[in-house]
Amino acid sequence: MDKVKNKRRYYDIGLQIEEMLFSGIFNAGERLPSERELSERFETSRATIREAIIMLELKGLVVVKQGAGIFFIDSPEKVTSRTIVPQSDIGPFELLQARQLIESNIAAFAATQIKFNELRELKSVVNQQEQELGGDSQKFEALDQQFHMLIAESTQNRVLINQAVDMWSSVRTTNPLWKELNSQFLHEDKLKNQWLNDHKAILAALQKRSADEARHAVWQHLENSKRQLMKIANIEAGDTGDDDYFFAMSFDPDFNTPEA
Fold first, then answer.
1. Which residues on neighbouring strands pair with residue 71, listed in sequence order?
2. Which band of pLDDT confidence, cut at 50, 70 and 90, is reported for residue 246?
3. pLDDT (tens digit, 9 = 90+) per residue, 31-46?
4. 87-124: b or e for each residue (b if 16 or more CB lie within 10 Å)?
5. Is there a contact between 107 and 204 (Cβ–Cβ < 8 Å)?
6. Mean pLDDT in the chain?
7. What angle do CA 191, 180, 80 make, to 5 degrees?
8. Rounded distance, CA 175 to CA 171, Å?
9. Secondary structure class of 65 (helix, strand, coil)
10. Is 60 exceeded by the pLDDT of residue 2?
11. Which of 17-26, 79-88, 127-136, 196-205 has the least mean pLDDT?
């Protein structure tokens, strides 16, 4: 099997696994190799394999059974229908990692710059989100974006503002895999409650003008998002490999990298 040159291209790997499914290597209902075996076969990280599997789940080609493994679907009508998920170079775990690293620091700086009227506007957005619980998912999503953009705008730094806008576009607007995940899973009320509580914690930290607490609150918000994505993919929280994307289970302000 050809080596995958770009080791972060979940889409290319997903297509190669799909070809394995339809070439007759696996029969309907048969268990696929484990994530570890697939990562070794394709010489890439298990996080990238997970993103490829999520893509195939959304296409209706595989199902992940908790504790049992990955299975080729056993529905004949789905086997003969090869739906297309538009190509994207960036997978959801990679997107969340970038947001966690960048947006947490944007929030820390925002805490030192934010004005009273901006805090009042953020509070209004949070109140509106609370009113949309159990209501319009698209409006809740728009308010979610507004909340994060207001934090970036409060830095008064155009580079950071543009970066935040680009990040959101990559995650929620132009990334086809994330859009499909969002439409199928991420609009559930229990998740909206989680995001709302996270936003309240971020707002509280900004009101205190605490850079450390704001950084922590945003970091944890994205950590919670990552955990929910892992649940959707039926991935155990502790099932990680050394080559996976770096996600701390909790933010540690005193973390230092070891000296070389």
1. 31, 63
2. very low
3. 888 888 888 888 887 7
4. ebebbbbbbbbbbbebbbbbbbbbbeebeeebbebbee
5. no
6. 78
7. 130
8. 6
9. strand
10. no
11. 79-88
pTM higher than 0.85: no
Between CA 112 and CA 52 the distance in angstroms is 40
Give the CB-side neighbour count of residue 51, counting CA atoms within 13 A: 28
Strands (E), the chain: 62-65, 69-72
Non-local (6+) Cβ contacts of 53 within 8 A are 14, 17, 35, 62, 64, 70, 233
Q: Is 184 helix (H, G, I), strand (E, B) or coil?
A: helix
Query: Which residues are bridge partners to 259 per DSSP?
Result: none
Residues 6+ apart with CB under 8 A from 191: 185, 228
Dist CA 101 CA 123 (whole Å) = 24
| Contact by Cβ (8 Å): 84, 1 | no
